[in-house]
Amino acid sequence: xxxxxxxxxxxxxxxxxxxxxxxxxxxxxxxxxxxxxxxxxxxxxxxxxxxxxxxxxxxxxxxxxxxxxxxxxxxxxxxxxxxxxxxxxxxxxxxxxxxxxxxxxxxxxxxxxxxxxxxxxxxxxxxxxxxxxxxxxxxxxxxxxxxxxxxxxxxxxxxxxxxxxxxxxxxxxxxx
Length: 176
Known about the structure:
CATH topology: PF0523-like
Strand content: 15-25%
Shape: globular
Pfam family, one: CGI-121
InterPro entries: CGI121/TPRKB, CGI121/TPRKB_sf
Organism: Methanobacterium formicicum
CATH superfamily: CGI121/TPRKB
Protein name: Regulatory protein Cgi121
Family: Belongs to the CGI121/TPRKB family.
Order of helices and strands: EEHEHHHEHEHHH
Number of helices: 8
């Protein structure tokens, strides 16, 4: 288990862990079944998202914090905290659009993994299944610009891509 590659945060009584993985997914149903069993047995939330649509750790953390607040206020769109995280990270109002942007695919995947209230045993099980190749979440500006139709001017005025995505998810929060 490599604690260094998992960022850890606390928000409103929840422990949030975020990491990046480079992994091969051969069977999506199998991996989703594993995640469901893991979360059911450990009373936690785990969300796997394609890292190409995440502008960095702050972006994933902001989306997670907004999702937690949405559930506390009964203002959530999704019935599941993990899906709400995905929705807010993608700055979309519709789950289908969020999954199109951040949903995992069969084959090679660079993943952003968010675990809420999972603890070390969940972290270890995720590492065992997703593999040892963890990587830092670094935004690919061109991919993010294309995915979210972000202009160079918007990046310049916000300061950087991560701030653009944090701002967009905050704006979505106001709209929902």
